[in-house]
Structures are given as C-alpha cells and as structure tokens.
Design goal:
Layout (H helix, E strand, L loop, with lengths): L1 H11 L6 H8 L3 H13 L3 E3 L5 E3 L1 H9 L2 H18 L3 E7 L2 E8 L15 E3 L3 H8 L10 H9 L2 E4 L7 E8 L6 E8 L5 H19 L1
Antiparallel strand pairs: 1-2, 3-4, 3-8, 4-5, 6-7, 7-8
Helix pairs in contact: 1-3, 2-3, 5-8
Organism: Neomicrococcus aestuarii
Protein name: IclR family transcriptional regulator
Keywords: Transcription, Transcription regulation
Length: 214
C-alpha cells in the first residue's frame, strides 16, 4: 500500500511519467511498477495517455474533495444561503501543496445565469482572487502580488481576467481552525458592481463557517 501511495503522489505531481520512471522513483522493478499502476488505473486514479505516459485521473479529484468532508459539511448550508442571496456560484477553495483546489461548489437555486466552478478543479496560487486570498494567509513579503498585500488591509482580493477571461473574481481569506489549511471563499462574476455585496456576503459566510467548525 505504501508503494501505491508513493506512486500516486509521484504521478499526481507530474505532467506525465512512464512506467520506467515510476519504477526508478520507487526503486522497484518495472514489472512491479506496472502492476501498481494497473491497480491505480482500475480505481480510476491514473490513466495512460495516447503518448504512453501515466497521468492522474478523475478519481484523484474525488479523493481530494472527500478528504475535506467535515469542512464541506460545515460550509454547505452557509455557502448555499450566500449563493442564493448573490445569485452566483460560490466555491470553498483550499490550499493543497502549491495549488488552490475547489473542494466545495454551490450554485444558486434561482436558476439564474451564473458562472460555474468544478469541484476538484485546481489553479496556481499566483493567479486569480482565490490564489491571492490564500497566499495572503501564507508567509510573504513586500514583493508579493498587490492583491496579496491588499488582502491584509481590506480583507479580500479582487481580480479581472486572471483565471477566466472577462470575469471578475472576489475572494475572502479563510484560515481553517484546528491546524487546518489556508482557504478562501470565492465568487466569479460577469460584473464588477457586485463587489460590495459579494464581499460582505462572503465575509459573513466565512464567519458562520468558522463558528460552525468551532
């Protein structure tokens, strides 16, 4: 099991690896690596691409989302209420190694047009309101992105077109308690004039989530 986990981490951290590279990393014979990867593929955790390289599959996203079940449980009600109020999808995004991962996404029940997220999706920390909000909770200096620095004074970040073209992003930093990771609540919108309402509602939801988590 340990080897399988190490193999999975190795594949997930790459842009594609060969069976031989996995074997070399694990210091095992190629046939052992092949069997491990086949078992991971059967569980939909990895797949072999057309180029013959092994990459992470959709099952990884499902595992990542499931890993935060207690946080998701505490946040769902509050995010749903905020989403309904704003008429926009809201995501709980958590620091995972060097990326920002959406572990919970809720959409408004009104059926109005909104920009959707995908649970399990990731993007770099150096782009987008969510990445900057999470980065503001991590050690940084005066050379950090202006939005990272601004988050400390105004309590939120805002961007335009950094992740999704022509879209505005607003995010409120959220440090999860009990040694939990840095996180944020994030909304993406087509208009900038919702900034005040969106930020106030996200901040309220963040406070409610922290109270729920104790």
């Amino acid at each position: 099991m340990t080897r399988g986990i190490e193999a999975l981490k190795f594949v997930a951290a790459s842009n594609g690896v060969t069976v031989a590279e996995v074997g070399e990393f694990l210091k095992v014979h190629r046939t052992v690596a092949y069997r491990l990867l086949n078992a991971l593929a059967d569980a939909a955790l990895v797949y072999r691409g057309a180029d013959g390289k092994i990459r992470g599959s959709f099952g990884l996203s499902e595992l990542a989302v499931a890993a935060y079940s207690s946080v998701r449980s505490a946040a769902t009600k509050h995010l749903q209420e905020a989403s309904n109020d704003l008429g926009a999808a809201i995501a709980l995004i958590i620091l995972e190694e060097s990326t920002a991962r959406a572990v919970l996404v809720v959409s408004p029940r009104s059926g109005s047009y909104h920009v959707a997220f995908s649970e399990g999706s990731t993007h770099p920390l150096d782009r987008g309101a969510a990445g900057h909000a999470i980065s503001s909770l991590l050690p940084h200096d005066s050379s950090a992105h202006p939005e990272v620095l601004a988050a400390a004074s105004r309590g939120y970040t805002k961007t335009y077109g950094e992740v999704e073209p022509l879209m505005y992003g607003f995010a409120v930093p959220l440090q999860l308690p009990h040694g939990g990771p840095a996180a944020c609540l994030n909304v993406i919108a087509t208009r900038s004039d919702i900034e005040d309402d969106a930020v106030a509602r996200l901040q309220r939801a963040a406070q409610d989530i922290l109270a729920e988590l104790g």
